[in-house]
Amino acid sequence: MQHADRMLQDIVDSLAARLERSVAIDDPQIKLLAASRHFGDEDRARIESVLHREVGPENVRYVMSHGISGWHEPGWMPPDDALGVHGRICAPVRCHGLLLGYLWLIDPDGSAFEGDLAPVTRAAEAAGVVLYRSLMLHEQQQRRAADLLLDLLSADGERRAHAAVVARDERLLTEPGPVVVLAAALEGDSPELEVLLSAAAEYAVRPLPAGAALVRVAGAGLTLLLSAAALDAEVSAVEVAERLVARVGELAGEDVGCAVGVGSAGPDLAHALASYRHATSAQRVARAVAGAGPVAVWDRLGAYSLLARLGPEDLTPQSCPAPVARLLADGRSAHLLETLETYLDHAGDAARTAAALRIHRTTLYYRLGRAEQVAGIDLRDGADRLTVHLGVKLARLAGWIDDAGAFRQM
């Protein structure tokens, strides 16, 4: 148990023993931080909280419906028999104006609330000091980790080598072992994308052991380095990425989109820069290519692993291969483009292509013939096939194809 955890436990135990009532402290998201022993007054919500370190969403909605996030002094919350919630005192845990959590005291009939609340207030204030110091230390460690990650991904080899030594000496990252880097970006209307991404990142890495991750959030972008000494690098990296996307969805709904790229796994920290470059390429594909995201893994990108290395200055409409440009310019050829891409994705297997498109094979051959005419190609020519296949993938990556499958005006 860490020092702050022990101090919180001492606070709840002392208050509970003095008042002979069950006491608990939650964080602002109603996740349990510390709980005293029971005094025969426990309810279903408290038991669930102690067992699972949190309560169900209906209980969270109930307590939040009383406006407790705006409280600055203890208040009494009435019972709810349907939820199995007894009446209880809620004392906001604050320090320097920051809401850091809630102190709960089981009080079924409100008698404790009608008595002397000074011990409750003092306990909440003491908890506020503990949590504030813990928050400051946590933020300091986060800044240190973010700076270290920036150095580990530097283009300067000496800077990277020094950062690797610091990571080992200060035990900021578990080693030795493989590493993998994730890159994520948010898109949306929320004015607090950095705050949102920071919260989602903290949730995503919560199940990982200490020293397994370095996180850096800058604006709407995230870089996350995972040390795989105690876990399977790629699988765990994908799971972390999926947790990140899911948490962004929970916090922001459909207002914010999240695209994540998972880089390649390498044997040690010397591979971090390469993995980061792979991750940013994968993230770009996840964001731009329909069906590739929201999580794209570098090792599974196929042709996109090459195309994504092209810079923005290379992706102009003028660089679109002529056969693909002709298909895109023909407003009636959206279905031809889809048919041609699917046919090439299936290595020219007509049966599999027809099944994927859910069309008759006769219709498939007609569309392919029309595509050859419009694009000016011969699908029996391997060079033409390669040009068109890569050209369509390039067009999707560059965003030249609109929702209707036509050339997007640039």
Write the layout of secondary structure elements.
Layout: H1 3-19, E1 23-26, E2 32-35, H2 44-52, H3 57-64, E3 75-77, E4 88-95, E5 98-106, H4 111-114, H5 118-152, H6 157-169, E6 179-188, H7 193-205, E7 213-218, E8 221-227, H8 233-252, E9 256-262, H9 272-288, E10 295-297, H10 304-307, H11 322-329, H12 334-345, H13 350-357, H14 361-375, H15 382-398
Parallel strand pairs: 9-10
Antiparallel strand pairs: 1-2, 1-5, 3-4, 4-5, 6-8, 6-9, 7-8
Helix pairs in contact: 1-5, 5-6, 7-8, 12-13, 12-14, 12-15, 13-14
The average pLDDT value, as a whole number, equals 87
- What is the highest CATH level, the class of the largest domain? Alpha Beta
Query: Total strand count, please?
Result: 10
Q: Helix/strand/pairing class, anyone?
A: alpha+beta
Number of helices: 15
CATH architecture of the largest domain: 2-Layer Sandwich
* Unreliable stretches: none
In which range does the helix fraction lie?
40-55%
Describe this structure in words.
The chain has 410 residues and is of the alpha+beta class. It folds into 3 domains: 3-133, Beta-Lactamase, CATH 3.30.450; 153-307, Alpha-Beta Plaits (2-Layer Sandwich), CATH 3.30.70; 312-398, Arc Repressor Mutant, subunit A, CATH 1.10.10.2840. It contains 15 helices and 10 strands. The strands form 2 sheets. The chain has a 5-stranded antiparallel beta sheet with strand order 2-1-5-4-3. It has a 5-stranded mixed beta sheet with strand order 7-8-6-9-10. Strand 4 and strand 5 form a beta hairpin. The longest helix has 35 residues, at 118-152. The radius of gyration is 28 Å and the shape is elongated.
